[in-house]
Amino acid sequence: FPGAIETQDMTELGKFVRDIYKLNKEKRNFRVFGPDETSSNRLTSVFEETGRAWDGQIFPDDAGLSPDGRVMDSMLSEHVCEGMLEGYLLTGRHGFFNSYEAFIRIVDSMVSQHAKWLKVCNQLPWRQSIASLNYVLASNVWQQDHNGFTHQDPGFLDHVANKKADVVRLYLPPDANCLLSCFDHCIRSRDYVNVIIASKHRRPQWLTMEQAIKLCVQGIGIWQWDSGCEPDIVMACCGDTPTLETLAAVTILREAFPELKIRVVNVVDLMRLQSDEQHPHGLSQREYNAIFTTNKPIVFAFHGYPFLIHEMTYMRENKNIHVRGYIEEGTITTPFDMRVLNRLDRFNLVQTAIYHLPQLGNRGSYLIQQMKDKLVEHKQYISEYGIDLPEVAEWKWH
Fold first, then answer.
1. What is the mean pLDDT of the chain?
2. Per-position DSSP letters for 55-108, written without gaps between them
3. CA 234 remoteness from chain centre
4. pTM
């Protein structure tokens, strides 16, 4: 049942990467790179097979250091890790970079140069292909409520999206099975810059592995278990937290208006939103219209800055799109309050939907008032107790 199981997506990926190390014992041509964040990003399982590379003296209380370790995270320097990984790939070997989403911005220029180098190399027949430059960015913008504003920046997506379409790929899996499917694809690929934005906290799991593979191969999909055939509105989402809040908003709308036909669309491959004239993964106009319709309102909950979605969809026929995402609001607060500050929460999403469903009339106005009341109740509750409302923290899909 969708959402019945909860787990940490990155913990499951850690087991997958551990098994890569296990199968790679003979060739020893695979490494994880990251600035002292392997454990923080929940990849701890890899240390069951290998240690952190370390040439210095090892003391009894040191954790996981080894002179032949194949995890490169013993220094807090994104620049050094990036340079080592690029060099490692250029020698014909394999690996990936794991980091906090906000701090991968430190190597923006290095990523740009690698992407430009790949673009030119793809035009030279004598250049051999190399393993893709892969990034797995956890501790993402919506999971930095405890570290605050300094750790909240999803702008790496914007930076990479502007590079040559033949080279860059962006993936935002909504759960662990989708993360495993995306990672498996990226780690096998060659000559790309792949970026995966992942969740490291406990989250509901929406799809079976079979369903996840189908969604990830297509990059975008209508969730059949939660969609009407002739929609009155499209509720779209991209990213783990936007998916959670969108589904929560859908349950509120359906309980209030059972007759309302809602189509839920989940986007894993961000580049699918662009036209097929702009990106190899882009949807044709006919494909896009079949999913998003030509005239129904679209409420789009997005992981990053809203402008990126507007930029990607400006050529589309349906201009009735309303994007909610990170709007540079943040502090040390509760997880749900981070979403409220940026109007990505379920109560604001419901209001946005109703504003664009005039057929609901006064019934819609009543639910808008309820949602406004809920936001006041939320603020009062976190001020008094320092945690989120039980109905939010313990919410389950039904």
1. 94
2. -S---TT--SEETT--EE-SS--HHHHHHHHHHHHHTT-EEEEEEETGGGGGGH
3. 20
4. 0.95
